């Protein structure tokens, strides 16, 4: 099964929007979402602080910031 990582933080409206997009895409494709709070790791905080949310699969960043459904769909589909 494809496993996506979503780097985010609490009280982030862009992160909430990204989760909605991911859940909508899960209706079409089967994948797991692992949500990771960047504030739990100093390295992640420094790496992704101004980029969140960040959607990644197999260490490839698929999208970040404002997540667009069609763009993310095109990126995810190649993993199926």
From TrEMBL:
Q: Which residues form a coiled coil?
A: 15-42
Q: Which UniProt keywords apply?
A: Coiled coil
Give the matching Gene3D superfamilies. Glutaredoxin (3.40.30.10)
Annotated InterPro entries: Glutaredoxin-like (IPR008554), Glutaredoxin-like_YDR286C (IPR052565), Thioredoxin-like_sf (IPR036249)
Family matches, as Pfam families: Glrx-like
Designated name of the protein: Thioredoxin family protein
């Amino acid at each position: 099964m494809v496993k996506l990582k979503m780097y985010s933080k609490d009280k982030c409206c862009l992160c909430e929007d990204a989760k909605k997009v991911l859940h909508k895409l899960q209706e079409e494709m089967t994948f797991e979402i692992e949500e990771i709070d960047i504030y739990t790791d100093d390295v992640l905080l420094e790496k992704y602080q101004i980029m969140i949310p960040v959607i990644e699969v197999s260490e490839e960043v698929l999208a970040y910031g404002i997540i667009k459904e069609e763009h993310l769909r095109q990126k995810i589909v190649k993993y199926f």
